[in-house]
Amino acid sequence: MTTYKIAVIAGDGIGKEVMAEALRVMEVLQQYDADFKLQLEEFPWSSDYYLEHGEIMPKDGLDQLKKFDAILFGAIGDARVPDEVTIWELIMPIRKQFKQYVNFRPVKSLKGIGSPLKNGKDIDFVIFRENAEGEYSNSGGRMFEGQADEMAVQNTIMTRKGIENITRAAAQYAVAHGKQKVTSATKSNAVIHTLKLWDEHVKQVLAEEFPDLQLESNYIDALVAYFVERPQSFEVVVASNLFGDILSDLGSSLVGGLGLSPSANINPEKDYPSMFEPVHGSAPDIAGRGIANPIAQIWSAALMLSHLGRPDLAEKIVLAIEHVLLDGEVRTKDIGGSASTTEMGDAIIEKINAQMSL
Ligand code: NAD
Ligand code: MN
């Protein structure tokens, strides 16, 4: 029997609500496979935890997480706690310390979900967002606060290694999945030093290590338009931290919205655990009402199972999600229905049960 140790951090707001459903789904899968066992440990690290303890995770939090095979994360964010705490003292340290420099975000039309585009043909590509450096750095600061000369400086940090790593990860995925093309998001025409470096090393890695892959390099302002005009033309998109964040929210809206969009923060070397979480945040506007869509969280759990070496189980989950959406009877509010979070979880579990008894 293979036992996987999973750290579960549900976080704030709807994070808690959608996580409950993902855990139920994984519980069900274990019943059908004697060789598959998850040992879950839940960590209460959240804004409530911060307000009670004065820190969002204990000093040895990362050491505690290190021994797990993977981390399943919900969402974090609360109006009572500054983002500097929730983002910079919880999510960022995990991503950075555990060298999760790949943020993998599939943009895939699910059966039964319409498209906001006139050209409603199926979309199926993936975004590799650089996840450890770039525009999201804590280098810089504010000066002359409250004065007329008030200003802020934000330093973007890109390294040759960082660019090579994310490019290699994207290209390896492309090769492994029979893709022909990698699209790079840039803005080097604006003489931004970091993006000049980006262009050079994306190009070099592809030319030297993946000569069979085609490189398409697009300026970010044009690329967002292409996402809308010809989303079917993309296969693998590689982008810096900020560009990748923006592109993936746009990508998400092309295929049904945040309630359906999973992501993986991957440490390709596997010397630290990887972390799996929906693209969405804690959604304070709907939290506590039991109406959040749990699909993004459940699909994120599927990405985790795939990463742990069980793509067969991941596929069962995605198939079950698609069956529910195709039936069309059970839908949460964000995708045009009135089902609750739990009802959506129930419906997906029912489809998994049906697949297993075939
Ligand atoms: P959000 O993703 O929480 O919500 C954006 C919109 O999408 C809201 O209208 C929300 O109701 C809706 N939505 C999101 N997920 C949904 C779901 N599963 N089902 C149905 N509707 C859903 O983004 P926001 O409102 O900009 O941010 C809220 C908080 O979350 C902030 O504190 C922000 O910093 C944080 N945040 C955290 C993460 C993370 O944990 N990685 C990511 C993004 C935002
Ligand atoms: Mn985002």
UniProtKB/TrEMBL annotation:
What Pfam families does the annotation carry?
Answer: Iso_dh
**Per its UniProt record, what Gene3D superfamilies does this chain match?**
Isopropylmalate Dehydrogenase (3.40.718.10)
SMART domains registered for this protein in UniProt: Iso_dh (SM01329)
Please name the SUPFAM superfamilies in this protein's record.
Isocitrate/Isopropylmalate dehydrogenase-like (SSF53659)
Could you list this entry's UniProt keywords, alphabetically sorted: Manganese, Metal-binding, NAD, Oxidoreductase
Extract the coiled-coil ranges from the record.
Answer: none
Q: Indicate whether Phosphoprotein appears among the record's keywords.
A: no
Gene Ontology terms, MF aspect: tartrate dehydrogenase activity
Q: Does the keyword Transferase apply?
A: no
| EC annotation from Swiss-Prot or TrEMBL | 1.1.1.83
> Could you tell me which residue ranges the Isopropylmalate dehydrogenase-like domain spans?
5-348
What PROSITE patterns does the database record attribute to this sequence?
IDH_IMDH (PS00470)
Q: What does the record give as the reaction this protein catalyses?
A: (R)-malate + NAD(+) = pyruvate + CO2 + NADH
Per its UniProt record, the required cofactor names are: Mg(2+); Mn(2+)
The record's comment on protein family reads: Belongs to the isocitrate and isopropylmalate dehydrogenases family.
Q: What's this protein's name?
A: D-malate dehydrogenase (decarboxylating)
From which source organism is this entry?
Answer: Sporosarcina oncorhynchi
